[in-house]
Amino acid sequence: MAAPGLISATMTGIVLAFRLTFKGIQSAKKSGAFQRMMLSSEKRYKLSGFEAKMTKKEAGLILNVPATNDKDKVRKAHRTMMNLNHPDRGGSIYIASKINEAKDALLKERE
């Protein structure tokens, strides 16, 4: 059985750590640190979702290949992504359709 003093000290430490974390989050919100962090991440990544029509750049991002790759690399990347995201294996139907659309967009321009 643990000593009551040890339990009390542990609980006090947990409460103080939670309080400091909570105050730090409040301080960051007031100073605008969260907004600056979001703005910097928006510059790196587009957060608005997919384009209305699949572009060559977006297709390359989805398949994780440069948009100027050859047919074999596009097909291999497509196969890899479909193995990871196939609906029969628990993947999303929507994501699988976007992977197929990306492959079609990249290969259609090669023909």
Structure description:
By secondary structure, the chain is mainly α. It is built from five helices and no strands. α4 runs antiparallel to α5.
Low-pLDDT residue intervals, each spanning 5 or more residues: none
Measured between the Cα atoms of the first and last residue, the distance is 75 Å
| Secondary structural class | mainly alpha
Tell me, briefly, the overall form. elongated
Query: Sheet with the most strands?
Result: none
Number of alpha- plus pi-helical segments: 5
Q: H/E series, N to C?
A: HHHHH
User: What percent strand?
Assistant: under 5%
The share of residues in helices is: over 70%
- Summed over residues and divided by their number, the pLDDT gives a mean of 79
Task: Tally the beta strands.
Answer: 0
Radius of gyration: 24 Å
Secondary-structure map:
Layout: H1 4-31, H2 33-44, H3 56-63, H4 71-85, H5 93-110
Helix pairs in contact: 3-5, 4-5
Which keywords apply here?
0% strand
Brief description of this entry?
With 111 residues, the protein is mainly alpha-helical.
